[in-house]
Design a protein that fits this description.
Two copies of one chain form a homodimer. Chain A is α/β, with parallel strands linked by helices. Chain A folds into five domains: about 140 residues, Rossmann fold, CATH 3.40.50.720; about 140 residues, Rossmann fold (3-Layer(aba) Sandwich); about 170 residues, Succinyl-CoA synthetase domains (Rossmann fold); about 80 residues, ATP-grasp fold, A domain (Dna Ligase, domain 1, 2-Layer Sandwich), CATH 3.30.1490; about 110 residues, ATP-grasp fold, B domain (D-amino Acid Aminotransferase, Chain A, domain 1). Chain A is built from 25 helices and 29 strands. In chain A, the strands form six sheets. The first copy, chain A, has a seven-stranded mixed beta sheet with strand order 9-8-11-10-12-13-14, with helices on both faces. In chain A, strands 24, 25, 26, 27, 28 and 29 form a six-stranded antiparallel beta sheet that branches. In chain A, helix 2 links the parallel strand 1 and strand 2. The two termini of chain A are about 35 Å apart. At the A-B interface, helix 5, helix 8, helix 11, helix 17 and helix 22 of A face helix 5, helix 8, helix 11, helix 17 and helix 22 of B.
Chain lengths: ~700, ~700
């Protein structure tokens, strides 16, 4: 596998090697030396003879030994030339630092295309460009120039060198954890996120994957790979650029288009990824997930030596959707026995001074609480680690004893403990011990709570895993000949938009409940159709030139008598002619007036990063003003469709409110799945709007439909 | 002023003084000694003769010298006895550590009442109980036992000793700032939040007030005092207990009831308080506000040496509602001259390596950017402070030079700079210099952004200050005799709920637009009233025993003919009899069917902490399901009423959507103010519901009204 080969290269040519300390071409060689890279290093620079004791070559192709990869630190304009030279030497991977490609607009894109053409022709795979480099910590290959990177089991994928530096520094200062690999993904011009992820999934040295993303070139492939990965290894991800201004900054940075943030978040979470919006908690969450078992039942207990911290932690965990179970009576009885009278023995447990003279009571409490079948994990907040510092030195030894016991407890009970300590920065030995036992320690309540929340979220995901679909589209699978013909006909006429009757025909063909419409081309026909329907009808104009029928006054509702229908027909045709004298008028649709129901809107579109997505919300102001909708990346499973409906905030309306009956949510769920199938069957469709769909007490009906094809 | 006298006491008796290191009675004396308290210390303990060289007294009343205050560390059961003894000595203040009062339920409340009775009788004012103590840093009076507390200009008010310890530790480790006073507010049994605040407002040593609150006993007085204070000094506040579980923990901690979190937040913010929900950013925001001028125009520029940090910071600031102005062409031109070609010279500014060889370029950029009239403040993110550490030591001196220049720049331009540095924890001298110049430095992007957001928020508030009301209620000011009589009559009948016609009468009396209803007691009367109205009518049952008219099938709408009205009248009376055979039926209201309009709900209630509050939202599911409402503490000004309407998410519905006309928001605003006046005029009202109110193209009308009085 090429990613594995590149990340485990046994020899590196540094193109643009330098003797100037501030240059990348110096730092890279210095770091490879300092960190004791196990492979061969070849500086390349036509102007130098020797660099740090190494012979310096004029070109890569002049190097006498085999060369696996090249670190290219020269400017964008030189890249194609350097790559051709690398090819002559049989180099199979290149790490390209220079910016000035896709991220700077048209000219840069052209340059990127040329680069990729050269690379493809010569079987060279590229990391970057516009990357800070990459590291393989097991082999001491550090092409980034950040020193003293701690080794560990977290693989880091970042689209920003600064963020990588931030995360590495954090690991170094505040944790015992470290990294297996780092890849600066850069512009993803060649190797993409999912390709790195595929390797990390298999890599035995990697337990957790940590990602900073600004935009993705192929979000769908990434989701597919993430879906496979998260059943074995957790992924933690921060996606920036969710604000408009943020988008601007991301645009100028990596040239990747940031997608709709709602789509991104729901897609990532559906693939089992832990998404965070706080850069402060990104590394801690990865640290926690690579240290501890996930929480199996979404239930957390809090153990505190003071009400303030307990109250804040409870707020934070509640916000994250974590439950606080009541402790069993047995647990409460046991706690009462070892804590003072004034202690709170229900969740959150407040020891009320009960640990002041003997902090090993923390371990006693933890033991009792973790035994409780209602409790899936324990968050300890307050002063632990600081009793020796604050009160009396003799207490330090007790804290260390407690740390040993709590460490073993986690292993025994297979339930996680996360600890918040005000004294973390004072580095007491007891907290070091906890970390040694894989109990993470934070001096921030926010972060400790978010880590606990992540353990619960990952646990919830693993339990629900098998119910999910895997983002694999099976284009064309259920395509029908008649459907193909409808689309062909639209294309033949040079149109992109299907007429309402064409759209409904296509939907009906795939079993969707559309209204029993017929096209009338005369008022007489309209009357006859209405007579057959034998109920009040609606009339709507049909013309490829009139997309917005209401704007053209081309809709008349609730028509019962022959007179009303004739008049409506004539008025609609007249209005259409006034609206657009050139319009190609195909006639008027006659539909039965729909039975009463709750209005729902279903839409699909092609997202830049994630491909086809579906949206659903309750009609009218709820969608238009409150933006109360839920999104999913297609395809969706029945479970996913059901969850999608429940994610709509105004869903209680479907359950029946204010004396109204409950509506048929199952029929709506089925319709969403049919939409998913339809979009999968006709990749030509760019956008589809079913608006409104009426959800009745029994069944649903599609009142209006709009389908737009991709431009040919 | 008693708060000032107590916080500046010149002599302290420590009741419960001890020789045991783990006891509070030891730690307090030790700390007073270590910190060099300028006043006199008198240990009190009947069992000891000498403690740390001091004579130990049996009782406070035995101390031969005058005693200002007593720190009482003995259990709850001893307090009244100790207070009586203190009184004999003329002590005027007591700091009571013990818990076991209001926070533990009925028995504790009784104990608290007894304590307050003794204190009042003897003119002793109490801090606490259930407090960690208090400190006056100017006088080295430290009754808490936390050592090395940094001195400074931040006054700290906290309802949790642990949170105080957290904040003090943070200040000590990460900042040059410190505290003027600390008060552990505890249960607020006697002295309340607003009394401390009043003193800090006047105190020349205090520049900023930092608060951790779980619940307030008199929120309204606090708001009034906060409103006065924030025009001179910023207040930063974290209120915990917003989750249900959080409430439970807060309840057992201080015995204070936590109020509705939406009400609290909107009330605090209207009084100019900076509210945060992140305990991590609480001290940093206070530090920033006490260091820097607020931002005058809500406009912030970002200066970054890497895209990743810039993108995340932009996301965070956008979330906080801060604007990113375009930089002027002049500014961009000037930046282009000093930065490399690949730099981004619009906001966020990315130097793209332009500072690598010379970090003084940061100061050059800051100078150019702060000169831009569009820019109100500057957030610098990235590696500043670490160039010397990471690249070459020689760069450190340049960073120090840049720090001096940026420090002076802030003073000159009177615009704030906040800095994020990845290298903050490495403590480079350049970052120390920045702090010396009052430029705060954080290693967290989250926190740096929140601090910048707080400067913008406080600046926005100061600009809008004069438009606001001041929470001073003028009970009964506009009471009308006729209104009083309506209420007296309800009371006379032993009711709490006004009948619909009574409620509407009261509203009409105060100029509110109620429908032209009349009460009919026979079908004939109903017909006559309808004839006069000369439009379709609604009939509604009137009975003190039927509060929910629809449940009793007591409402009939859209009645036009005499026949319809007669039938409706009889049916309503019959239904009411079936619903409650004992019901006291007063007749039927005849109302004209209301003109079409957007449904709005207005409600008022008495909040436990903040007194009368008003709520407004759009009718139907928007209020019931989406909970899309806005809250204000009464009274409200026109500006505040306007803002209240704009805070409703679905407000675009009133502006006219989907072809509907714009509605009369001004009339709605006037109605909200009238409601405010009404509640102010009749303090007997506990709850009022105007539901629905119809907002027309011109004017509003109240269709139904419910008023409930406080229990007598």
């Amino acid at each position: 596998m090429y990613v594995e080969k590149i990340l485990n290269a046994e020899s590196v040519a540094v193109v643009g090697a330098s003797r100037n300390e501030t240059k990348r071409g110096y730092q890279a060689i210095k770091t490879l030396l300092d960190e004791k890279y196990e492979g061969a290093i070849y500086p390349v620079n036509p102007k130098e003879k020797k660099i740090m004791g190494f012979t310096c070559y004029k070109k890569v192709s002049e190097i006498p030994e085999p060369v696996d990869i090249a670190l290219i630190t020269t400017p964008a304009s030189t890249i194609t030339r350097v790559l051709e030279d690398c090819a002559a030497k049989g180099v199979f991977g290149a790490v390209i630092i220079a910016g000035g490609f896709g991220e700077i607009g048209h000219e840069g894109k052209k340059r990127a295309d040329e680069m990729i053409e050269v690379a493809n022709r010569n079987n060279i795979r590229i990391i970057g460009p516009n990357t800070s480099g990459m590291m393989n910590m097991n082999q001491n290959m550090n092409l980034v120039g950040i020193r003293d990177v701690p080794k560990g089991d977290i693989a880091l994928l970042s689209q920003s060198g600064n963020m990588a530096l931030t995360l590495i520094t954090e690991a170094k200062i505040k944790s015992l954890k470290g990294f297996s690999y780092y890849v600066g993904v850069g512009n993803e011009s060649d190797i993409k996120f999912h390709e790195y992820l595929e390797f990390f999934h298999k890599d035995p040295n990697t337990k957790t994957i940590l990602m900073y993303v600004e935009g993705m070139r192929d979000g769908r492939k990434f989701l597919q790979q993430a879906y496979k990965t998260t059943k074995d290894k957790p992924i933690v991800l921060l996606k920036s650029g969710r604000s408009l201004t943020g988008k601007k900054a991301a645009g100028s940075h990596t040239g990747a288009l940031a997608g709709m943030s709602e789509v991104a978040r729901s897609a990532f979470e559906r693939a089992g990824i832990i998404v965070t919006e706080s850069s402060d908690s990104l590394f801690p969450i990865a640290e926690t997930l690579s240290s501890l078992p996930p929480i199996k039942n979404n239930n957390v207990a809090i153990l505190a030596d003071g009400g303030g911290h307990a109250t804040i932690a409870a707020d934070l965990l509640s916000d994250l959707g974590v439950n606080f179970p009541e402790l069993t009576e047995k647990t409460q009885e046991k706690l009462k026995k070892i804590l003072p009278f004034s202690a709170t023995v229900n969740n959150p447990v407040d020891v009320a001074g009960g640990t002041d003279a003997d902090p090993t009571v923390f371990a006693d409490c933890a033991d009792i609480i973790l035994k409780d079948p209602n409790v899936g994990g324990l968050l300890i907040v307050g002063l632990f680690g600081g009793y020796g510092i604050r009160f009396a030195e003799s207490l330090s030894l007790m804290e260390e004893d407690a740390a040993h016991r709590m460490g073993k407890l986690v292993r025994k009970r297979k339930k996680p403990i996360v600890l918040h300590s005000l004294f973390s920065s004072e580095k007491p030995h007891s907290l070091h011990l906890l970390r040694y036992y894989n109990i993470p320690v934070y001096d921030s309540l926010d972060i400790a709570s978010k880590c606990m929340g992540a353990l619960a979220q990952y646990g919830n995901y693993l339990k629900s895993y098998h119910a999910k679909t895997n983002f694999v589209l099976n284009w064309g699978a259920k395509t029908k000949d008649k459907g193909k013909k409808i689309i062909e006909n639209v294309r033949k006429e040079g149109r992109c938009a299907l007429l309402e009757n064409e759209a409904k025909c296509l939907l009906k063909l795939h079993g969707m409940p559309v209204s029993k419409d017929k096209l009338a081309t005369t008022a007489d026909q309209a009357v006859k159709i209405a007579e057959k329907l034998n109920q009040p009808v609606a009339l709507k104009i049909v013309s490829p030139d009139i997309l917005h029928k209401s704007d053209a006054k081309g809709v008349k509702l609730n028509l019962s008598t022959e007179e009303q229908i004739r008049e409506a027909y004539d008025t609609i045709i007249e209005n259409a002619r006034i609206y657009d004298p050139e319009a190609d008028i195909r006639g008027v649709i006659v539909s039965p007036m729909a039975e009463e129901g709750v209005e729902v809107i279903i839409g699909t579109k092609i997202d830049d990063q994630f491909g086809p997505v579906i949206m659903c919300g309750l009609g009218g102001i709820l969608v238009e003003i409150i933006k109360d909708v839920s999104f999913r990346v297609l395809p969706i499973s029945p479970t996913s469709a059901k969850k999608m409906i429940e994610d709509i905030k105004s869903v209680p309306v479907l359950n029946g409110v204010r004396g109204n009956p409950a509506r048929d949510k199952k029929a709506l769920k089925r319709l969403l799945i049919m939409c998913s199938d339809l979009i999968e069957s006709y990749p030509e469709i760019e956008e589809m709007d079913l608006n409104p769909v009426l959800v009745h007490e029994k069944g649903v009906s599609i009142v209006d439909a709009r389908i737009i094809l991709k431009p040919e």
